[in-house]
Amino acid sequence: MRVEHDDREGTETLASDVDVADTFLSRARGLMFRRSIPDDYAMVFTFDDADERDLHMVCVPFDLDALWLVDGEVREKTRLRAWRGLGAAVADTVVELPAGAADDVEVGDSVRIVE
Predict the structure, then answer these.
(1) CATH number of the domain residue 23 falls in
(2) Which InterPro entries does this one have (predicted)?
């Protein structure tokens, strides 16, 4: 599984090591208590419908890039700071990546999860 980003320049792989958080417990834990994540890693939170989705960085000791998607379109992008970051936006999918991995992603771009 991988996370791909499409823009006017073409397609780029943002992550090739992907975990999907699709249960209550996996979503609640997220990346808490991990010391680090690989450069090519993403955690993808999937939901049945688009609604307000919030993220916190409690017990996450490294910065992250977060993308909120609706039907594969980036609706919001935020850098979340270690331990104290907060973010919220409407999404049916949320993607967490290592800080800097989403530098080239802009609101309105397409991001997809490829099996």
Answers:
(1) 2.60.120.1140
(2) DUF192, Saro_0823-like_sf
Q: Are residues 112 and 3 in contact, defined by beta-carbon separation less than 8 angstroms?
A: yes
Range of the domain at 82: 2-114
Residues of the chain where predicted confidence (pLDDT) is lower than 70: none
Looking at the 3D structure of the chain, how many domains does it have? 1
- 3-state class (DSSP) for residue 98: strand
Instruction: Give the three-state DSSP class for 53.
Output: strand
Residue with tokens 């919220």, as numbered in its chain: 88
Cβ-in-10-Å burial (0-12, 13-18, 19+) of 103 comes to exposed
Which residues are CB-neighbours of 14 under 8 A, at least 6 positions away? 2, 3, 4, 5, 42, 95, 97, 101, 102, 105, 111
